[in-house]
Every structure is written in C-alpha cells, then in structure tokens.
Amino acid sequence: MSLQPDAQLDVRQLPCPMPLLKAKQALASLGAGQVLEVLATDQAAPRDFAAYAEATGHRLEDVECSGEVIRLFLRKRQV
C-alpha cells in the first residue's frame, strides 16, 4: 500500500515509549483525516501504535517493514 502522508516523523533510534509520544505530538498539528508517516526502529512500535489507534479512534492504515526500519501510517480520527 502506498499512502501519501501529510506529514512525516522520523523517530528512528528512539526507544519505547518515545516514538508514540512524538507521534502523539505530531498528530496534534494535523487536521482530521490527515495521515502521519512515522519512521521507527523500535520493534514494539507496530503493537504500540495499534493499541494507541484502538484507544483513541485514530486509524493505523498500514505498517511496512524494510530491514530495521518500520514505516507506520496513522490517520488522524475524524472529529
């Protein structure tokens, strides 16, 4: 799947829970329905982002792994 993100956040090399905390901050600046692409290396990121999306109403659109880099596409919930 190839989504066109509205913003990108590079949190590679940051340990848990920093990728999720930084993504939460980045989502605050996006409008409803916009997509944030997160680049992470924390192997727990897919699980953490899925749980976060479930709890907040955002949508984890896609997760792509390429080597150590994990690309997560998070769509901000509609208000």
- Model regions low in confidence, pLDDT < 50 over at least 5 residues: none
The backbone outline, from C-alpha atoms, is globular
Mean pLDDT: 95
Number of strands: 4
- The helix tally amounts to 2
Sketch the major β-sheet.
4 strands, mixed
Describe the structure in brief.
With 79 residues, the protein is α+β, with helices and mostly antiparallel strands.
Question: In terms of topology, how is this protein built?
Answer:
Blueprint: E1 7-10, H1 18-28, E2 35-40, H2 45-56, E3 59-66, E4 69-75
Parallel strand pairs: 1-2
Antiparallel strand pairs: 2-4, 3-4
Structural account:
The protein is of the alpha+beta class and 79 residues long. The protein has 2 helices and 4 strands. A hairpin with a 2-residue loop joins strand 3 (59-66) and strand 4. It is globular. The N and C termini lie far apart (25 Å).
Features of the shown structure:
single chain, 79 residues, alpha+beta, 2 helices, 29% helix
